[in-house]
Amino acid sequence: MTPQTYPSAWAAVADHLHHLGTGAVFGLPGDDMAPLAELERADTPVVLCRDQRNAVFMATGYALAAGRPGVCVIGKGPALTNALTGVLEARSAAAPLLLIADGTRLDRLGTGAFQELDQLTAVRPYVKWAARVDTPERLPATLEKAAALAVNGTPGPVYIELAEQLADRPVTRTGPWRNAAPQRLAPDPDALAATARRIAAARRPLLLVGGGARHRNTGRRIERLAERLGAGVFCTASGRGTVAEDHPLYCGVSGLYTVAPADALWREADLVIALGSRLEETATFGWPDAEAGELPVIQAVLGEDGLSMERPGAYVLGDAGRIVDGWTELLAGHETGTGWPDRVRAVRAGLARRAADRTAEAEKAAPEGTVPVARVLSSLDRAVPADRVLVQENGLQDMWSYYFPHGTLGAGGGSVVPSEQTPLGFGAAAAVGVRLAGPAGRPVVALVGDGAFHLFRAELPSVADARAAVLYVVLDNGGYGWLQSNLDRVSGEGSRFAFTVARPTGTEGLAAAYGLGYRRATDAGALDAALAAAWQEVAGGTASVVEVAVSLADTPPGMAGSAGDFPEREGAEEDPGGG
To answer: What's the confidence (pLDDT) of residue 112?
Structure first.
């Protein structure tokens, strides 16, 4: 091809983003506005944020929902350090992310230049790869390598720093941009066959579906494997939305969010088949320990950095979809263990009965002027179409939605949740990226606590400017409910400290100022109408906020109280599932 010359580095970046199919760029550029000067001439939408952390959260939400790189553009110095929390989350969530930042001019390094920082050293612990570009000829190759590293292997964030002297220097590309689609690697045939034999020998298997299987369940191949094995299906929090939650073998979220009678399946199982999961602490919380005879686990992960060797078992590396297809073929004619599928279905039915009982208990116990969280979830089911994407936080009350079947994803529904890092405010911001990832018209609901939402509220003008039609459902318990519950545990009710205080939120005025919808519900009887009206606004293209007053005592099912990082679980119950 004829060499392509761009007038500046940022012009080359803008063209490469167009090549990648980038649907939106998020960020807060440096003072010289060089990125915006070029992006304004391109057709790529730009969301100008008020805070770099939120910009990275939005780009991460975009990446997780779209399955392609999210892009964030920032300035230098404190702009980079502000973004690091978001980069940490992107790395933990295995989200493909391109973070592009300004860097001090080459001839000013080491002189105490304005906002000078050794940014490569600061960012390297959080990313897969970091590079600084000082000369124009290095830029095209650096962009292409960054894109390849972001999407291949275990996906994750990469960092490119553009030295300021490149802003007005021409860049020449001598060949066409390389294909940036991820390469879905096939598993080793011997490892696939060996693990298939171990699966065939299991009589009571469970499938655990993690975030690494996201976008890899084409044709419901995972459910077909589960049916062939008669395996109960669980997912990790980050794996939600990958499998159909209305499937008769699906039993909920693993680990921290597994309650009776489903917890009995983990004690009875003889093998776990983990697809795309790093077996994080929250996913394995409550599993049988060494004294009880640890469960063997067959891990299927894309990259070796995702392996956990803390439990007995085996592993196979490769694309989750290809591994599942390979196992399904090798296990043709497999006979399921006697009675195990029936046992799984009975447990699922028992979960439904338990959920109905817990919902009724919560309704009776709700103080006047509050709405039970279980009622919020059922009202959402009625108000918003079933193909919605539920974007979540991980606070005290919004955890209700992690417990199946209180929070259930409908047919075609999706989910984006914080990773094991759970930074406050991630879900509120990520919902903007999820909405812009499309497809157009797909409902996006952010279920967030008031503490997380108030941390995010400075971005409401960004939401309005971007026309990101998100339904924000804010569970208002007066502040940081999880911290308050832990404080009550150690200090009692007489502490001079407080994390929750009843006070006006001020959200109504902010929403009105930016042309967004707003409602507040303090009565369960009025909630359906409030959510239905808010959804009509969102369906019409305007973001809307519904604040719902909830009680601090309205704790999720299975939770006896707080215990530091994790909830204290209730004692064993009689098993309604028949085991």
So the answer is: 79
